[in-house]
Amino acid sequence: MKALCKLEAGPGLTLARTRRPVLGHNDVMIRIRKTAICGTDIHIWNWDAWAQRTIPVPMHVGHEYVGEIVEIGQEVRGFKIGDRVSGEGHITCGFCRNCRAGRRHLCRNSVGVGVNREGAFAEYLVIPAFNAFRIPDDVSDDLAAIFDPFGNATHTALSFDLVGEDVLITGAGPIGVMAVAIARHVGARSVVITDINDYRLGLAKQMGATRTVNVERQSLKEVMDDLGMQEGFDVGLEMSGVPSAFKTMLERMNHGGKVALLGIPPENTAIDWNQVIFKGLEIKGIYGREMFETWYKMVAMLQSGLDLSPVITHHFPVADFEAGFAVMLSGESGKVILDWSD
Ligand code: NAD
Ligand code: ZN
């Protein structure tokens, strides 16, 4: 089958032929229709220090996808051939304390599809049936293909009650802009988002941000004054991984504020603990998606009118994957979809 492979330890990916994955008794085989490019795939493309330590070579990568089930292992219940599915990319062990308690997102032994094992940038993907998630007919293939990052945004945004709250989001990448739409959908009073990229702040505006702030040109404090916010933000969603953004967030939180951290900062990033202690801030780290509560919430929000369509900005046939990666690398994109269906 065709797949986007890392054939050698170095930058880039190659569209190559590789063997079709083997189906186990508890697995489903998915014929991939559409995939999306994640920031993680960009790290893999660039072959940065993280990718060099993490990605086995040769291997095909990718973990944002939608497809249909074409084969089912003999032990699998609850799925049938032809079901349209996406899938949870964290494959959990099932036997650690958290897995056994149903807190699968806290599994200490999780393995990543397209990171630690073969991925979805391929004609066929095999995953445990447990990880497959059936997509209702009223959700498009495009949206189904981005359930993984949509799930990151959902898990983070729904970590704290947003009803009537003033929300600060740092980082208007695809996940940050989806979090804007979610926060508005569930009833935040105001959603202010920061970035240094005007294209992405434009997307955030389309997704419903109350104010967008390019922190290279304007201070967040100024915008807060303008909005008449005297006390500070109630909830912060850190979605940039940039230390200075997190620092500003801590400074601008109200006392008793709640902060969810999704963005991955550089190792040993220091923070001003006085902001946390004297303001009584609550800080929560977010990894992946809750299995499968986040997935049900995503469907429910789409079915109750959440509009994510502006975040999907580009489509390419998989043969043009290099153009797709180039547009992601330029920073002038939301989600980029690669079509495998020809
Ligand atoms: P992204 O890199 O596309 O977005 C980050 C954004 O932050 C960019 O638009 C960038 O311009 C912006 N930025 C840079 N400097 C800034 C500053 N000073 N202030 C505000 N914004 C600034 O990433 P993404 O795919 O949207 O993901 C968001 C973050 O979440 C990344 O750090 C990613 O590594 C992380 N992530 C974590 C998990 C998890 O499970 N914890 C999962 C997926 C992604
Ligand atoms: Zn586990």
From TrEMBL:
GO terms for molecular function: L-threonine 3-dehydrogenase activity; zinc ion binding. Zn(2+) 1 binds at residues 38, 63-64. It catalyses: L-threonine + NAD(+) = (2S)-2-amino-3-oxobutanoate + NADH + H(+). Residues 10-338 form the Enoyl reductase (ER) domain. GO terms for cellular component: cytoplasm. Binds 2 Zn(2+) ions per subunit. Keywords: Cytoplasm, Metal-binding, NAD, Oxidoreductase, Zinc. One of its GO terms (biological process) is L-threonine catabolic process. Its EC number is 1.1.1.103. Zn(2+) 2 binds at residues 93, 96, 99, 107. Its cofactor is Zn(2+). The active site is at residues 40, 43. PROSITE patterns: ADH_ZINC (PS00059). It is found in: Cytoplasm. NAD(+) binds at residues 175, 195, 200, 262-264, 286-287. Pathway: Amino-acid degradation; L-threonine degradation via oxydo-reductase pathway; glycine from L-threonine: step 1/2. The record marks 148 as: Important for catalytic activity for the proton relay mechanism but does not participate directly in the coordination of zinc atom. Belongs to the zinc-containing alcohol dehydrogenase family. Homotetramer. Catalyzes the NAD(+)-dependent oxidation of L-threonine to 2-amino-3-ketobutyrate. This is L-threonine 3-dehydrogenase. The gene is tdh.
